[in-house]
Amino acid sequence: MDLLPRSPGEFGSSRYWDRFFRQRGQRPFEWYGAFPELCPVLHKYVRPRDKVLVVGCGNSELSEQMYDMGMCEDIINIDISDAVIRQMQERSGSKRPKMSYLLMDMLQMDFPDAHFQVVLDKGTLDAILTDEEEATLAKVDKMFAEISRVLQVGGRYLCVSLAQAHVLKKAVEYFSQEGWVVRVHQVAGSGDKQQFVLPVFVYVMTKFRKIPGSAPQILEICPEEQDKPMRVENAERLVAAVKDRQHYALLCSQLSKTPCGEQVSLDLCDKESGRPRYTLHVVDSPSVKPSRDNRFAIFIIPQGRETEWLFGTEEGRRQLAASAGFGRLVTVALHREQHYEGMAGIQVELSGKVMELAPPGLPARQQVPFLSVGGDIGVRTVQHCDTSPLSGEYVVEDVKGDGASYFRRLIFLSNRNVVQSEARLLAPVPLSGQKKRRKDKKKASPAEPPTAIDKSYLCCEHHKAMVAGLCLLGGPDPLPGTPLAVLVVGLGGGSLPLFIHDYFSQARVAVVEIDPSMLEVATRWFGFSQGDRMRVHVSDGLDYVAKLASEAPAQYDAIMFDVDSKDLMVGMSCPPPAFVEEPFLQKVKTILKPEGVFVLNLVCRDVRLKESVLATLREVFPLLYARRIEGEVNEILFCQPSPKHRWDPTELGARARALEGDLRQPGRPWDSSYALADMLQAVKIL
């Protein structure tokens, strides 16, 4: 049966609607949901004694149900279709004596001014405003003017709509300019009975006397899950807020019907501040055979661990979902600016929302497990936050890792999913002679987290590889006792230069850092200090190297670049592009001793850009080794200008093993995870 118009313009034609309702017969046609879904919003704005006008009533049961439920009785329904008006008069008859149906065009109504307290429109505005042609907009202006005329001051125009951007924008701009208060409600969905994928909204426009001059606009949005409206600054922000909710509804609809091929991510924001509170990733595992108990689970990532490979990368989350054994896993990352009331509180807060992301075929009352590492939400303590003119906003925070280990991290909020610097914290050591307290039957209070920095520990895998690269320096003497001149560009928390300083007793380390704030952070929060063999130069690395190249060539045994790029639009986050341009690399080669080694931490997701960087490096340095850091984007490049020997990976592994033995001195801490030999045995010669 052809019930749709040949062109959108026919929505305004009485002939089309006569034909439509004759073909449809007595079956009610409910635009955008029925009374049960709309009732929670309507009952806020329709009072029993109100005189209500329903424009474009069609054969909807909404007016009848409002009447029968006692919401109000003084209801006048109008429509341009003679067929539907006669149909509704026959259907309602004497059952509802105070309600009437009239054949009338809402663009030219016969009612006196200020005759109604409520005008109700269910889909009529959407049917008329099908495009933004001049004739259409003029018709809508006439409609709004008539509604304004027949409403009393303090009266409400309630418009049920799918809130297409141009429809919402037109309504908001028209009535807000007239001095009306505009509020947009999202209507709660009705599950499988909902006819539309996109959510339904109710615009509530409350009439006020227009104040001369520029009175402030009052625009609000009220999401379905809360009664308290949120104020927005302008019409554009209101339209954007509605669009966000439409996209979310569309996403939920897609996820409920088919498995997602690619991982889907979304933020759930705090209602008060509007800031992200949870970041969700939806991961489907096609390899998992679904059963009743393994279709769906929620995984809460402990605070501070969202940057780890398993939780912070697509491949890691895919592996996590497969090992957890669920067909669909939703990972939930917690944000540092927010406060959480433990796992139970998070479960209560998220239960309703995450069920909207459930996979197809999940039983309605299926219990969905909430998982985590160790069953808790982890520990995150923000120690310091500030803003640097060069690095932007940053935080220093302590987080709990696996087991009892704690770590201190530096995070730039412009790239909050990347740990800029990290150091392990030392567990507190009991004072000598301190007696153990007797055991108490009461549960012991949790131990205070440690605060002292473990300077002997390298947290970052790429730092371990950079240290291992010192094996490329020739000579029969053990490196730890050999005088070395090392230049490190990029301080961060200072763990790399500190390790070289402490473990290579004859090394003199110069560090170049462009941001004085980072020197302060490293000194105050990461245990960094300067001395006779360690000096920091606050300068642009480009300028510092260029000056050295003109004044004092061939003075460094090793040069290390571990400097991040502030330009997030480039596909290379480390180093900045200028640091790998051929003229500058020639200057690096100039200040490096002929048998020295240049070590570069390269983080580049752009394949073409990476190939270009490698080609430039090959032009400048005859010998180039590469070590890819497993599970990360980082690749450590070892470049030599005039090597005495071309080491193969096996030889490098042997040299690294010897170096490791030299560094393991009695009384000096050494972590088995360093595995310098493994680091170099996996290098590739480029």
UniProtKB/TrEMBL annotation:
InterPro entries: Lys/N-term_MeTrsfase_sf, Methyltranfer_dom, SAM-dependent_MTases_sf. Keywords: Methyltransferase, Multifunctional enzyme, Transferase. Transmembrane segments: none annotated. It comes from the Eukaryota. The keyword Methyltransferase applies. One of its GO terms (cellular component) is cytoplasm. It holds the Pfam family Spermine_synth. Residues 50-172 form the Methyltransferase domain. Residues 430-449 are annotated as: Disordered. Residues 434-444 have a biased composition (Basic residues). The keyword Transferase applies. Coiled coil: none annotated. GO terms for biological process: methylation. GO terms for molecular function: methyltransferase activity. Belongs to the methyltransferase superfamily. This is eEF1A lysine and N-terminal methyltransferase. It comes from Rynchops niger. The lineage of its organism: Eukaryota, Metazoa, Chordata, Craniata, Vertebrata.
